[in-house]
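Aim 2 progress update. The chain analyzed this quarter is reproduced below.
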Amino acid sequence: MKKVYAWLGAAMLCAVAGSAHAERFDLSIGDDSYRIALNGPLSRVFSQTTGQYDIGAVVRPERDDDLLVAHVGALVTGDAGARSFDSAAGLGLRAVYIGRDDNPGGSIAPGGQFEARFPGYERIGFSVYGYYGPEVLTFGDFEEYYEVGTGVDYQVLRDASLYVGYRNINVKVEDGPRITADNGLHVGMRLSF
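Predicted structure tokens:
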């Protein structure tokens, strides 16, 4: 499993080094887990494309099976149409790798997100997202995957935010129980470069 962590870290560093502008780096920490993510304009990867790419991983190092949930995704994004809010929404797909010591697997999970900034208080934002991979789109030793989350952030600087959020990542093992990869509150920061 440590090799997987090393490869994931190397891939994220290459993504950062490969772009002239590193986009947005996100780090959040919960009671039993942490999440590292990088996202930015999809046009950095595919020219002439609107949207957003997202690379990240949630790690629970204290679990007996060293559970790792890593993803790569793309969303088509745009104005959500709320007149008085600065808001954006996105719909897309996420390819998810679910790593356990003996039985890794994964999922292709459709989903979306919504973000808004409050009028007159633009430094305060709200976000919600969700992804779901049913059995037909899940492989390996898993039958289902879902991830939902929400958060409230405050822009300390225009390029640096602190936030509090909640996320639930859950997978169903084939002929077995559900495994909660993450469930609870976390605090985090986002840095734009």
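The chain is about 10% helix and 65% strand. The CA atoms of residues 171 and 179 lie 5 Å apart. These observations will guide the mutagenesis experiments scheduled for the next reporting period.
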